[in-house]
């Protein structure tokens, strides 16, 4: 088998990013957009010794799990990897991914998995969207995305992951840009003004934020944009962010509010958050609530416990747990996130929390060596980024011997590696649940409970 060969393959499995996996002549092939159960015709794009990558040409026999993607541009866009797979099968795929990693990497045999928590309506769940503004192949102003290897935008009239409110907002903005001859940014020539439109929507409060990200200082015809956008019920904050750098980082440092408030407010459960254009905030608030409620259940709090929330971000889990704990300590590396965490604590009149800036693997051990008794926790929660926890942190956690560890993870491979360490050092895996926060994509969150056995 060599590059450019056209072959027929049955898709028997799915990879971590939702790509189809099949075998031809004993060689494993990864085929994007092919669905488990399909028989496809594909063209070999790249060959390695024992595996290769192929491009889907035609589905010869359609899988029983294949569905028509809702979004007409799901293939070139690439934002969703699983739209062609029925939602039930997506959930099964994600649950299996977590289970298989726990088996293969973690060495666990008896896995106490609870059924995955999926969404009833797995579309339109994102509360944040950043649309590049440009021209399509006919030169028409559009909000969309750059398809691979091109410099013209493919319009996304309706992104099925985004809030429904995005469409009328973009419609109004594009119309005024057209009328007033306001140029979109062209990343090739570094000219033009409007780079991106950021929209954030509070699903609970229905408050809307629009931020114009400009290659320049001022939005021309500002009053006209404001008049049009404020016709939309719920409009709360309109701002301009300056990004004059030749970079693919979306936002610049400076944001100026041109109408309304500097932030929108939203809730996860009973906890209120103020969200500014640059704040980190969970993108699927409904499933975040499901995830945090599970973490809270696993934490088993009665009101007397001290809890450490490591990798706490803007303190979302900390504040959730503080409602049921005696004291919560949060640690996070990004200073702005800790500033937000403190602000959010005050906003909710939560006083039994303390936040520290720094690396979890440094702040926590040093706090422990200075204030051992006070730092003693019944429960430690970790929610690290994809690379998981440093081993030095895991060893400090073990030495502090909390009764329970709740590990929230966005990457089940590093989760499995870290759980293997913890279970080799006095803990037992008690409960595991996957939560589908990113429906239609290959990503999956999981929450696990470990209990101390010695
Ligand atoms: N628990 C939060 C955020 C989890 S995301 C929530 O639910 O919203 C992981 C967080 O870990 C990010 O905010 C990231 O900035 C932070 N982080 C990354 N490396 C870190 C480290 N070494 N120590 C502490 N925090 C870290």
UniProtKB/TrEMBL annotation:
Q: Which Gene3D superfamilies match?
A: 2.40.50.1070, Nucleic acid-binding proteins, Vaccinia Virus protein VP39
Enzyme class (EC, first level): transferase
Domain of life the protein comes from: Bacteria
UniProt-annotated binding residues for S-adenosyl-L-methionine: 282, 311, 332, 383
Q: What is its EC number?
A: 2.1.1.190
Q: Give the GO terms filed under biological process for this record.
A: methylation
InterPro entries for the chain = MeTrfase_TrmA_AS (IPR030390), NA-bd_OB-fold (IPR012340), SAM-dependent_MTases_sf (IPR029063), TRAM_dom (IPR002792), U5_MeTrfase_fam (IPR010280)
The segment(s) forming the TRAM domain are: 1-58
Question: Does the keyword section mention S-adenosyl-L-methionine?
Answer: yes
Which residues are annotated as active site? 410, 410 (nucleophile)
Q: Per its record, what are the GO molecular function terms? A: methyltransferase activity
* Key words of the record: Methyltransferase, S-adenosyl-L-methionine, Transferase
What does the similarity note say?
Answer: Belongs to the class I-like SAM-binding methyltransferase superfamily. RNA M5U methyltransferase family.
What is the name attached to this protein's record? Answer: 23S rRNA (Uracil(1939)-C(5))-methyltransferase RlmD
